[in-house]
Every structure is written in structure tokens, then in C-alpha cells.
Amino acid sequence: MWLNPEEVLLKNALKLWITERSNNYFLLQRRRGHGEPTGKITGLLVGALDTVLDSNARVTPFRILLQIPGSQISWVIASGAAIEEVNRHWDWLTRNLLHSLSVFENKDDVAGFVKGKVKGLIAEELRGRQAALEDDPERFREALLKFERHFGLPSSEKLVTYFSCCCWKGRVPRQGFLYLSTNHISFYSFLLGKEGLEFVIPWAEVVRLERVSSGLMHDAVRLVTRQKIREFSMFLNRDEAFGVIAQMCDIALRRLLDSEGLELDRQLLQPGHINKRMLEEQALREYVLALFRLPRSEHLQEVASCSVWTPHARTHTPGTLYSTDQYLCFSSREEGHCTLILPLQEVLSIEKAESTSVLPNPVIVSVRSKKAFQFIELQERDELVETLSLRLRALQWKVSMFRDKKHSRRSVSSPTPYYTFYYDTGLSDEEEIEEQVLRNTVNSEALMTAFHQSQPGTNGNKSMETVKERLWEDHFSEFGRGVHMFKTEKIQRLVAMGIPESLRGELWMTLSDACSELESHEGYYSSLVQKSMGQNTLATDEIERDLHRSLPDHPAFQNPTGIAALRRVLTAYAHRNPKIGYCQSMNILASVLLLYARAQVDQSVFEELIRERLPDLADHFPDLSSLSSVSLSWFLTLFLSVLPFSCAVCVVDCFFYSGIKAIFQLGLAVLEANTALLCSSTDDGQALMILTGFLEQVGTEESPCVPSSPPPSAGPEDGQEPLTVKYTNITDLINEANEKFGDLSVRQIERLRCRHRIQVLQAHEDTTKENALRIVSSEVSMSPENLSDAYDLFKTEHLISLYWGDSSSVAAAEASSWRQTDAGRSFTERQYRLDRAQFKSLYCLLAPWPVNSEQHTDTLGNRTFTLLSHDKDGLVSFKEFASWLDTLYSGELNEKVRLLYRLHIPPALTESEDDPSLLKSPLLSSNRPLYVTRTQETESGEEKSYQEQLKQMLKDLGKEKEKDVDKPLPLMNQHEFIQFCKTLYSLFHGDLEENELFQAIATVTSLVLQIGRLEESDWTVSFAQILASLLTEQALVNFFEKPVDLAAKLAEARGKQYHQRAMLLSLQHKVR
């Protein structure tokens, strides 16, 4: 297949590749070890290397290189698994390109031409494959042609899907087609032979998506941007259309705005590969990961309907089998009725059994505990078993190759998770006894082992704990123990009672499958701790301040051992995730996890669930922000900061079993239990007291909570008894939450998260913008409105390059910038930064003075970028951009001249820079020495007075210079002064006062030549001398002090920016 040209070093490549065919420009190579007789040492080594690599990193055995004669750099342009495929590409190159390349004289032109042709072939192949993947390829191909014709976007803007619908303009519906592409949502209508409504909206501008049904618009989709509201209706299937629109917007925003914090699948980071089928697969993958709470790195491989034998029910339970990279997962048809997770590293074999009428197409999965699971009614069983067996063998081989032998030996002192002891086989009687002790101990490193918190009613607690332990042991004997026990409603009821202390650490590790993660990443945490310790950052300072505030009543955190453990966890996390660092409530969560072992989006989802499930409460609180502020700590700390400790860990038990669904259900139950009191409250403060008082009265059977203070009232009138809040048992509260809100499914939560993530990401963008403007506003004098518009232009330029430009270079530059850990810049200052090409595009749109040459404009843009990117990272921040813009439009005359002066001396002016100006003036010719005689004055008095005036100006400027905190500017030499004068002539071209300005600059030039300093044939002049000379000519003063309407310039740039870049990029793709 054709590949996007990727640079390789030919010298190193020859060690791993053998050239089979070659000509002046192309090489066809075969990977060493492929197709060679066995026994050759080099082939064996390369073959072993390719086998060890992950499947994503393996190299195809054949490839074609573009090689420029005399160069050690080549480009991979095609590859294939079979020689026949690569030979077809080779024949096409020799037949269509080889003869054409001989006409090029420049080597760079040859490389550019071939790479452009290859990219064009890839685009054609991609378009054909994209159409073939659709249910109706011909209709999609027709829609694709219309999309390209109507909107004129670059070819890299890929159409994903489209819908027939109406767009409302006022009270009039416009029938047309809604096109969803990788970066935009577009609409086009054609009515009665005339052009109708047409618009293109970037996904990055969408702030909210809603379903509305009111008036004429029934089952409509409302799309809200920061500037406008668009409403669409009359979809054939509104639910499908709304889901795809929300998913496309979510993916685009995560890719463009926050791909670090909200991880995307690798395929989705390549928007050109996205199609409708991939969206469906991605939605299913998100659901499966959430349902079984698998690691985000897992990829869904196979989905198959089947039934599994459930010993506890003595029957086969129908459902769906999902296989990922490292797991086999089963879910019953009714979500939550029965689930099963089998980590592949626990699986010994996957085998087919004899098929019968009672047990059709059975498959037996054996695990390390000598247990087996039977799946039946599997369609395409043979292919599925073969695929799973290959994946299992690869995993087992990898483990055997890379795990140290001493860690693979079973030992009672091994730090491996508890369940591996339970599933190991062949233990002696003594080992069985020791294993049982370890199982009861759970984890020797848990702080609860050494620091147990005593509670009142110890005897009662012990008896209740004993009852719970017996119930759990009975459950283990019936449903299994470890990560692959069957999870049913029964275990949900046990979790609601509270997991016994002796089993809590074990079950938290089991229910979260952290034990598998620990085993597969052995030593990872220790290495993180070693790397992070000793670092001094803002995050570590905040951690140190909060260490002693974490569960201060618990003995574990009144001791240096517990404090040190908490410090290690928080510091290691901040080191691993520098963009997050340390955040509020992390200390509380980490504290509880140490004892035994996404919030903004969920808050937005919780608000919608309140409106849907508790309408009376929502009617009383039209603005749910007050309830959101109260419930924020519920999601940040999983109720740990608002419930008594003994009750809070029961909530964490439910969280590890049910995930975030448990927190949603419990939050709704708390609000539902207090609806009457909340609806009678008069202000937010009273509502806060009601909920706080209710949560303070929550207790357990072992330690019922006795209120320390009278519970809050709901604002009783005079003479009325206050409404009190009674004691509530945490188990009853959790069971009530399950009963009343148990129909809340993982699929529903994931859909809500997808939609509300759009609002949260855009709210984050608004906050980022506010912070950026606040940082910059104190350093510039432009109005807040103009500064805001400038930020929008700056951000849009960055996004346009991500849409259609070479985003890899931008991303690489930004990643490099982050790796530099520049302590002088905040996250806000580094959020959006422009490279040279992006900045030059804005320079052309915003430069206040017309320039008579595009080449000269390009040169000044280059120099300005070099000057602003003074930290040598190759990027310009918004702060630097705003400072430049403010100087041009709001600066004093001397500041503008100072900027022009700096553009004509190093580092802005480089020695290798070619002369960009088309202007050739005899006075400024660089072909002869710079020497001008003094002008003859008719009246000597005028000359004397003029010189005295100039000297006085120099003295005044010298005094101002002493006050200036900036360093003195370097002197300007002859060549630099010539460039400076050419720039001035270019700026004046086309001005209404052009003639007067040309005369004035000629006079100033002569004056500067007279006052410049000549030492050893080197002529130099200072900034102060140039400025003083300019001030002698009123025409020049008027030119630089003439006000320019920045608001109008920004509005004009905003209108041109998007479409000009789109047209330019379209033209570039056509040229290629």
C-alpha cells in the first residue's frame, strides 16, 4: 500500500534491508530474514526482533524508497506484506513517474513532486475505500461529490456521513442535507432552482447540543455556538443522527482541545481515517470499557452472542462475549444481571468441545485455578477460537520472555496480588496453610494492617464483621473468588452491606482488577517514585501543605509512615501526569486507597439526571448550579469528605463494584430523600445545611451516627416545630438508591458523558481564554473587546493548521515545549502557540501598513516571528503576539520605530537572508560605499539652528533612555540601515501622502548618514539617532501616529482568515 512519505536514513537502513530492485530514484527492498534460507545469523536476529515487537510496531517485509541521487536521506513511500503488491506499485512508479523526474534540475523539486503524487494516490485510495465501507457506496460517492462542490474545503477534510433534514431559519424550514466531516458540520439547501441556506461550522465552535420539541419543531436537534443557534429537524431517525453528531463533536473537541487529558483511540487521532463504521465501533468500545471498567488502552477485538454456564443458577445465561487485547468479558442481555471478566493472563487454554444438540458450538476456557468456563451457541466458533488462541499464545510467550525467573516462582513472600496464590496449583499442605494466612492478611503493605481505627461498640463490630465475612465466604464458594468470579445482584447486595475490613483490600483490588495491572506492570510504581522524589515543583509544594490535612482523625495519618506513603503516591502521580499535577481532594482519595490498597463531566451529567429523575426539585431550582456546588465534593471525593468514615468506605465499596453509576444513584437518592425540605428552603445556604445535616446523620449498624448538633430546619415559621432529619442507615440508603434508580444504565451514562463533555471542554476553553486575557491585559493598552477578538484569531489559526495543515510538526513542537518544563510559563501561556507559517498568515492579515511587495511582507513576517520567539522554541505565545499587536496599534511613535529598528538587526535579521525588496533606489544602492556629502544651505543660520535642534533631541532621548528598563539596542551597520530604509519606502507605498513621505524619508536618510559614526571603515548608527532624525519630519511623525482602527482590522481579518486559508490549502493539494 502507498504510505505518507516518511524519512529514513539510508546508511542505517541497509543493515536491516536488502535491495532487490533499484533505479536512479527508487529502491525496492526486502527485510532481512524474510524469504531467506534458515540458519543465517543476520536473518535470525532481524526475524527475532520483528517477532518481539508488538503488532502495531512490526515492519512489513517489503518496501519502496524514494532516493535522491547523492543524498543519504530517503523516504518510504510504499510497503506490503507480499512481493506481488509491492511490484505493482513499482511498475506504476517506473511507468508513470520515472521519465518525468529527469526534467527536474533541483533535487528538492524531485522529492516534492514524488511525495505530492504519492499523497494524491493515498487520497484517491482512501476516498474509494471510504465509499466502499458505506451501506450504499454509490449514494455516498454522490454525496461526497456534492460536499466537495458546495463547500470548497481542502481535500483533507473528509466526509464521514450525511443526513437529510430541515434547518430552521426563523419560522421557515429549509430542506437540505447536513454533512458531518472530520472538522466541521455543514448544511446546504437548494430550493426551487435557487441557492438556499449554506453554512459551515467548525466542531471547535460548538458549545452545546440539545434535543428540543416545541411548537413547529418536533424532535429537533439544537446546535449552539458562541455566535449563533442552529436547529435541525425532520430526521428519518433523530436518535441516530443526534448520537452521531454528539460523537463527532466529542471526538473533534477531544482531538483538538484536550487530547492529553481525555485519551482517544489512536485511529481517531487520524481524522482522515474516520468513517461511520468506525464511529459505531468506537461507541461500542467506549461502552464495553465502561461496563467492565477496563483500562483505556484496551481495544475491542471481537463481539459474539453466546450463553455461559452459570453454576450458581444451574443454567446457561444468554448474553454477549466481548474480547479485547487482554480480556474476555461476558455480559448478560440484561445489563448488570450477570457479568464475568477473564484476564487472558489467567487463562491457560481456549478449546473447542464436541458440539451436540444440547450444547451447540461449545468452547471451554480453562484458568489457572483448575476452573473452566463453558460458552455455547457461538457463531463462527472456529475462527474465534483460533484468533483467541493466537492472542493467548502471544501473551504467554511475551510473559515468559520478559518476566524475571525469580518473580515467576511461586513464593509466599512474593509481592504479587492475593488472587494469584488462590489460582496457583500444586501447593503442599503447608503452603495451603500459609496461603490462607496471606489471604486473610490481604496485603502486608496496607496501612490498615498497622493502623486500625478503633470505633465505639467494639464487640458489636466484631460480631457484625464475622457475619459479613461468613456471608462473603459463602458467596465465594458459590460464585467463585478472584477477578473472574460471577458478578450478580447478590454481590451487589453484599457490597451495599459494606465489605468486611478483612476483605476490603482484597476485593477492591479484585473488583477494580488493579491486581492484573500490578502484575503486568511490575516495578512501574517503584520506578515512578524514584524518578519523582527530590523534585521541587508547584505540585509538590501543594502536596506538602495538604499531607497533614488528609483524614486527620485517622491514626495512619498521624504517623510518619502513613504520611510518607501518601507523599509517594501523590508525588508519583503528579510526576506521571504533569498537566494535571495535584488537584483538590486527591489527598483524601489517596488516603483512603492507601488504607486498603472524572468529575466536571459527571457533574454536568448529574444536573441532567436531576432534571430527568427529580422534576419537582428541578422546578424549585431552575438554576441547578447551587446543588452542583454542594454535590461537587460527592464526585471529587466519592462522599469521603461528607460522610462519616465508616459509611464513606461503604460508598467506595459500591464504586469499585458499580463504577461511577453508584455515585450517581446515591447522589439522586440523597436529593430524593430531602426533596420536601429542599423545596421549602429559601436560599442556597439553607439547602446546603439541609444536605450537610442529612449526611451527618448517616451511620452503620455497627456505629450508628449520633448527631453532635441539632439538625437543620427547613425554615419553619414562628410557632412551628423544626423539621428534623432522622438517623439513616448507609446500607438502607444504598439499597434504596439501587431500587429507585437501578434502571440507570452504563450505556445511558456514557451517552450523557459524550454530550456533556462538549460543554465541559468548551467551558474549560472559556476559562483558559479568561485566564490568558487576564495575564495579558495588564501588559497591553488595547481594549478588552479587541484583545478578546485577537485571542480568537490566534486560536483559530492554530486550529486551522490542525484541520488541514501539517499538524504533526505543530504537535511535536508543542510537546517539545512541554518537555522543556519552562518554569517561566504557566499552562495558560502555553495552551496555544503558533509556528512560523501560522504566525506569518496572521501577520499578513493584521499588519497595519500596506507593503508594496508580497515578498517584502513575507520577509517582515519572518523577521517578526524570529524576534518574538526569543526563547528559541520555534513557537510564539499569545502573550508575545498580543504585545506585538499592541505596539503596532496602540504604541507610541518611539515604540513603533523601536520595533522596526529591531526587525533590521540581529537576531531578527540574519546574515544569510536574501535581499527581499524589489525597490532599487540609487541613494540606497549597496553596490558602492555609503557616503553622502553635506547639503549646502543658503543660510548658515538655519543650518546651525537645525544642528542645535538635533543635538537637543538626542539629549532628551538620552534622558528617557536612562529611565528605560530595556537594555540598549545594538548599533545598526550599513547593510542593516539599507534594509531599514527599504522597509520604510515599502511601508509608504500607496499612502495618500506618499510623495511627502518619500521626500521626508530622503531628508532623514541624508541626516542620519551625516550623524552616523565611521570607525575603521565601519559605519554605524544608533536607535536614538534614527528616532531623533525621524522626529524632525512632521510627515513621518503623522504617519506613525496616525490612528488605525484595530477593531475594524480584526473584523476584516476574521472574515478573511478562514476562507483564505481553506482556499490556499485546497490549491496546494491540487498542485500536489
From TrEMBL:
<dbReference type="InterPro" id="IPR000195">
    <property type="entry name" value="Rab-GAP-TBC_dom"/>
</dbReference>
<protein>
    <recommendedName>
        <fullName>TBC1 domain family member 8</fullName>
    </recommendedName>
</protein>
<dbReference type="Pfam" id="PF00566">
    <property type="entry name" value="RabGAP-TBC"/>
</dbReference>
<dbReference type="GO" id="GO:0003008">
    <property type="term" value="P:system process"/>
</dbReference>
<keyword id="KW-0343">GTPase activation</keyword>
<feature type="domain" description="Rab-GAP TBC">
    <location>
        <begin position="498"/>
        <end position="659"/>
    </location>
</feature>
<dbReference type="InterPro" id="IPR002048">
    <property type="entry name" value="EF_hand_dom"/>
</dbReference>
<dbReference type="InterPro" id="IPR035969">
    <property type="entry name" value="Rab-GAP_TBC_sf"/>
</dbReference>
<feature type="domain" description="EF-hand">
    <location>
        <begin position="856"/>
        <end position="891"/>
    </location>
</feature>
<feature type="region of interest" description="Disordered">
    <location>
        <begin position="701"/>
        <end position="721"/>
    </location>
</feature>
<dbReference type="GO" id="GO:0005096">
    <property type="term" value="F:GTPase activator activity"/>
</dbReference>
<dbReference type="InterPro" id="IPR004182">
    <property type="entry name" value="GRAM"/>
</dbReference>
<dbReference type="InterPro" id="IPR011992">
    <property type="entry name" value="EF-hand-dom_pair"/>
</dbReference>
<dbReference type="InterPro" id="IPR011993">
    <property type="entry name" value="PH-like_dom_sf"/>
</dbReference>
<dbReference type="Pfam" id="PF02893">
    <property type="entry name" value="GRAM"/>
</dbReference>
<keyword id="KW-0677">Repeat</keyword>
<dbReference type="GO" id="GO:0005509">
    <property type="term" value="F:calcium ion binding"/>
</dbReference>
